[in-house]
Each structure stands twice: as structure tokens, then as C-alpha cells.
Amino acid sequence: MDPLQAGVTAARHGQRAKARTLLKQALQSDQNNEPAWLWLSTVVETDAERQTCLEQALTINPQNQNAHAELERLLVSDTVAQGRLAIYQLPPLQSPSDVPSMPVPDSVTTNPRPVRRLPPHLAPAEEETPPPYAPLSAASLSQSGPLTALALTGCLSVTAVSGLLVLFALWLIGWPP
Question: DSSP letter string over 130-141?
């Protein structure tokens, strides 16, 4: 069997070490074997080896869109990983004096930007400060009006009735045992 076909079969069956050996044999006989480079890129152990395989395939066929996409994905993921490492390797700040100061341009201090104001009809209404919290009492209910008292009583009665309905339903199904 051809080493390329045997290597592809081994790669498809998850036999990475065997596939690497067979694909390298195929490349020893023909360095310009684009499929061998592409398949080898799927079974190598490191990202650096994978990048080398994809670059070799692109040297042979610069029009290969799959190789371009895989190489771009590999380079982007490598860049992201390096960026994460750089963030984690920063030493912690000990005090505010450890923060490097940046010079402020003179234009900022001498020539501040004018404050832009919204037209009155677009400006948000100024919020009134709410009155301090006062506990609810019968006297306060009677002062706020009969409608408030009626609404509160209605809510309490609906809650009580729904609670009784739930208890009745539980009694019907045999709860508590």
C-alpha cells in the first residue's frame, strides 16, 4: 500500500504516531506532496510543527484555501495565547506610586473642551429625592386616602385566598401524609 494512503487511513483511525511515520515516508520520496503535508499537519505533536507543515503545503500550492484558513487560525490562537501569558506575567502593583505617571499635554490643562449641554426639551428631568422611608401604619393608610387602603386590602385578601386554595389543593392530594 502507498505510504500516503496508509498514513491517511491511520490518521482517520486515530493512530497518530503510525500516521506520522507513514506520512514522513511519503514525503521522503516526494517533498512536493501537498496532501502528505496537509495530513501530516493534522497528526504532528506541536503547533510549531503544524505551522511548518501548513507553510510547506502553501509553498507547493499557494491557492489552497484550507491551508490558508488553518494557518490563520493557528496563528491567531497562538497570538491570543501569548497575550494571555503576558498579562499573567505582570508583577502586582505594590502601591499607587508604582503606577507610571503619564505626562498630561498642555492643551488639556490650558484649553479644556467646552461643556456641551442638551437642549431643555432633551435634558433628563431632575429627579426628586424620595421622602425618607416611613413604616406603614393604619394612620398613614388613612392619611394617604381610601383608595390606597382599598388596594392594599385587596392585595392582602387575594394573597390570603390564593394561599387557602393552595392548602386546599394539597389536602385533596393527601398532603401531609
Answer: PPPP----HHHH
Domain boundaries, the chain: 3-88, 145-172
Residue 119, C-alpha cell as written in the block: 437642549
* pLDDT tens digits for range 52-68: 999 999 999 999 998 88
Instruction: Report the alpha-carbon distance of residue 87 to residue 66 in Å, rounded.
Output: 32
Q: How confident is the prediction for the chain on average, in pLDDT?
A: 75
Q: Which helix (H) or strand (E) holds 73?
A: helix 65-88
Residue 2 and residue 28 in contact, taking contact as beta carbons nearer than 8 Å: no
- List of E strands, 83-176: none
If you classify domain 3-88 with CATH, what class do you get?
A: mainly alpha
Most distant CA atoms of the chain, gap in Å: 100
Q: Does pLDDT of 87 surpass 50? A: no
Tell whether pTM > 0.70.
no
**Residue 47 neighbours by CB distance under 10 Å:** 13
